[in-house]
Specification:
The structure holds two protein chains of two kinds. Chain A is of the alpha+beta class. Helices cover 32% and strands 26% of the residues of chain A. In chain A, α6 packs across α7, α7 crosses α8 and α10 packs antiparallel against α12. The longest helix of chain B is centred in the first third of the chain and has 8 residues. The relative contact order of chain B is 0.27. The chains are: A alpha+beta, B alpha+beta. Chain A: This is DUF1446 domain-containing protein.
């Protein structure tokens, strides 16, 4: 029997009403189903660890309550399992939010599973780490270290489902593993059934970014039209026991599922398509085919699997000093020349108002920005209209906040001391978190699941508060 | 003019120049300092043109000002497309770049600005 995988969110900050039509469709179909929330990126995990350091009760997906509130009761009533990496740095805290939310509709006894084992910060020094090939960074010193999390596979998520969890909360797991887990649980696929595992992982890969497979992040007016993007439907992936899969979306929603929307997502963030590494299987997409079966129904076939890698990716987050940005606009006749003069003035001011190690970049938005190099090659060479609407942007980085504040204040001072007609200054600065990726031995990682016990959690939190009070 | 661009200019005879954007669609993805650009012909008829003209050399030249160190191209004939993997092009990546777009998400359209020579444009 077909198993349905519905996407509820594709990143932290995604639409919080997206899951509603997906769950309505899953209920209407009445087939076995799960709802998946992927809300954890490299940036968001680092932010969550920082938030938890400031407040031990924080550190999970900030939108968790808003994401779950409209659909939790429906899913519990209809046996639709919910899995999410919305636990981020604090899965226990997220479990508590889920438990409280379930209690508001009289389902306080809902079974909540919690995945353990991704957080290896305490053991980082003992483990044998290999550098990840796409980066070349030194391991930061202990004082700068914020977090270290392994990308777990589907096994601990499956374990949680086997314990009877109706909602499964994890921190760092490989995003598509959220989708693979309910398939392994439902169909009883073996952990060495590589082709099926690969198909399940690709169902996850296609669904994990939410609307990116159903017409989101796709529209290009005049070339690629997408209907009703404001109400784009999030994906539902139909998976058969033999691994055949079809991408579709809820009836009555916007967006579209076509061979083109599926192909763009199929290779998203993939490097070698014959060796797409995931914790549970190496996926081979060399022979993959995409076929439109009908309106908003696309089959993906030919996915092959190879044995799982012996090492798992780990992301280490560490303090990266301070980053600041400031912007000012110039518009109308001769605007480009005035913006360029402002950039020159600023560059010169920074040579004697900021330390030499301050890293900086100047863009002229409207002329050359996101495509440009850090030193402005395109700004110097690309033709542009003399008049127009340009925005000079300064970005700086330094280990000390005061120099980032000073540098951005220099842009602010262009109001009175820079070229004519500058306006609309905005400034902001924030701590920067850097990340580096490594590979750890699979055998060094102990991943497992437990059921959340609210009473134990409250005792632990009370003890932590007491310890903190003693420390003060 | 690079050797590749010279060849391109020579082959303009009998064809006409269009932006890759007319022939293909693309999406960017990032991991660390590495960018991948998935590129697909709108019309499978143009896949051979993409293979012939969207070469590793030309893509490397297009991203040279960003510090790109290597381009690897994986052909996907079954999808009438290819995956281009570009190293060291993200100025530090999402957590390290000073660029407004640290992910490099907009760079699919830098690729789509590449100039192509075609016999016909079917769309």
């Amino acid at each position: 029997m077909t198993f349905l995988l519905g996407s509820g969110a594709g990143f932290s900050g995604d639409r919080t009403d997206a899951a509603i039509p997906v769950v309505a469709e899953l209920i209407r179909r009445g087939q076995p189903a799960a709802l998946l929330f992927e809300t954890l990126g490299e940036r968001t995990l680092a932010a969550a660890h920082r938030a938890m350091r400031d407040d031990p009760a924080a550190g999970y997906e900030p939108l968790l309550g808003e994401l779950l509130a409209p659909v939790l009761d429906d899913c519990l009533r209809h046996g639709i399992a919910i899995l999410g990496n919305f636990g981020a740095a604090n899965p226990d805290g997220a479990c508590r939010v889920v438990a409280e939310l379930a209690a508001t509709t009289g389902r306080g006894g809902a079974s909540i599973g919690r995945v353990h084992g991704d957080d290896i910060r305490a053991r980082l020094g003992e483990l044998e780490l290999q550098r990840w090939e796409a980066e070349n960074r030194e391991l930061p010193g202990e004082e700068a270290l914020i977090s270290a999390n392994v990308y777990l596979g589907a096994a601990p998520l499956v374990e949680a489902l086997e314990l009877g969890a109706e909602v499964v909360v994890s921190g760092r797991v490989a995003d598509p593993a959220l989708f693979l887990a309910p398939l392994v649980h439902h169909f009883g696929w073996a952990w060495n059934d590589w082709d099926r595992l690969a198909a399940g992982m690709m169902a996850g890969h296609l669904g994990e970014c939410g609307a990116q497979v159903t017409g989101g992040y796709f529209a290009d007016p005049g070339c690629k039209e997408v209907p009703d993007l404001a109400r784009v439907g999030y994906p539902i992936i139909e998976v058969e026991e033999d691994g055949r899969l079809v991408v579709t979306k809820p009836a009555g929603t916007g967006g579209m599922v076509t061979a083109r929307t599926v192909k763009e997502q199929l290779l998203y963030e993939v490097h070698d398509p014959a060796n797409y590494l995931t914790p549970d299987v190496v996926v081979d997409l060399s022979s993959v085919r995409v076929e439109e079966l009908g309106p908003d129904r696309v089959a993906v076939t030919g996915i092959r699997g190879k044995p799982a890698p012996q090492r798992l990716k780990t992301t280490v987050c560490y303090e990266g000093g301070w980053q600041g940005e400031a912007e000012i606009s110039y518009a109308g006749p001769n605007a480009l020349a005035r913006a360029r003069l402002a950039a020159e003035v600023l560059r010169e001011r920074l040579t004697f108002r900021a330390p030499v190690e301050l890293r900086s970049r100047l863009d002229i938005v409207g002329h050359a920005s996101v495509f440009d190099s850090d030193v402005g090659d395109l700004q110097r060479t690309l033709p542009a209209s003399a008049g127009g609407d340009y925005r000079l942007r300064l970005a700086v980085e330094h280990s000390e906040r005061r120099w980032v504040e000073r540098a951005t204040q220099e842009l602010l001072a262009l109001y009175c001391a820079g070229p004519a007609g500058g306006g609309g200054v905005r400034r902001q600065f924030q701590r920067r978190v850097c990340t580096a990726s490594y590979l750890v031995k699979r055998s060094d990682v102990e991943a497992f699941a437990t059921l959340f016990d609210a009473t134990l959690f409250e005792t632990k939190m009370a003890n932590e508060r007491r310890d903190a009070d003693v420390a003060h | 003019m690079s050797p590749t661009e010279t060849n391109m200019a020579a082959s303009t005879a009998g064809g006409r120049e269009v932006a890759l954007h007319r022939l293909a669609h693309a999406r960017a993805g990032d991991k660390g300092d590495r960018l991948n650009l998935a590129l697909f012909a709108y019309d499978p008829h143009h896949y051979a043109t993409l293979v012939e003209q969207v070469t590793e050399e030309r893509v490397l030249a297009l991203f040279a000002h960003r510090g790109a160190s290597r381009v690897r191209r994986y052909l996907m004939p079954g999808l009438a497309g290819m995956n281009l993997v570009i190293d060291d092009v993200l100025q530090g990546g999402v957590n390290g770049a000073l660029n407004l777009d640290g992910h490099g998400k907009t760079l699919s359209f830098l690729l789509l600005g590449m100039s192509m020579v075609v016999e016909d444009v079917l769309r």
